[in-house]
Design a protein that fits this description.
two-stranded antiparallel ribbon, mainly alpha, 2 strands, single chain
């Protein structure tokens, strides 16, 4: 049931398997092997679609035209920094002011053009500290929210939804 709940939340099967492996370790340590999950989920590693530079530029211009500032900045952030989606919460007001994001084991520098746009966004949103991208209620954006925001541009930008993901944007950066 827990695996199904994680899948419904939007986690990939490989991520669910990682979580399950950790839980299995705890169950074994507690001496209750009978609660251990035996079979991992099947992971389908298909060919990841590639986002072209023109499609990326169409996503950006569509976000500007539709005045979707948050989606615009997210698209630009993933494509210009290669920031992993699970580290988005590390992009804080303080990190933008410093111009670098501290990741586990490395430092990611924010390009100056993006940094200036982020500072402008922070000022307009009235943020003083904490994560830059939050929901209306002030909670950090979840991975599914981020993907939906980016994919909301697809129809008008004439880009397939499979290509408008943080992973494809990161691949474009690489």
């Amino acid at each position: 049931q827990w695996q199904a709940a994680l899948l419904e939340t939007g986690y990939a099967p490989s991520t669910v398997n990682t979580c399950t492996a950790a839980a299995n370790g705890l169950v074994v340590y507690c001496g209750h092997r009978e609660f251990q999950v035996e079979k991992p989920l099947k992971c389908e590693y298909g060919i990841q679609p590639e986002l072209t530079r023109n499609e990326y530029l169409r996503l950006l211009s569509t976000a500007r035209i539709l005045n979707k500032q948050q989606a615009y900045l997210l698209v630009k952030l993933f494509a210009t920094t290669g920031l992993p989606l699970n580290d988005l919460h590390r992009l804080t007001v303080e990190a933008v002011v410093c111009g670098k994001i501290t990741l586990s084991g490395s430092i990611l520098h924010i390009p100056e053009c993006l940094r200036l746009e982020l500072l402008d966004y922070i000022q307009r949103e009235g943020l003083s500290s904490g994560p830059v991208f939050v929901t209306r209620s002030g909670l950090k954006l979840r991975r599914t929210n981020v993907t939906k925001l980016i994919q909301s541009l697809c129809h008008d930008a004439r880009v397939s939804e499979e290509k408008a993901t943080p992973r494809c944007l990161k691949k474009l950066y690489q």
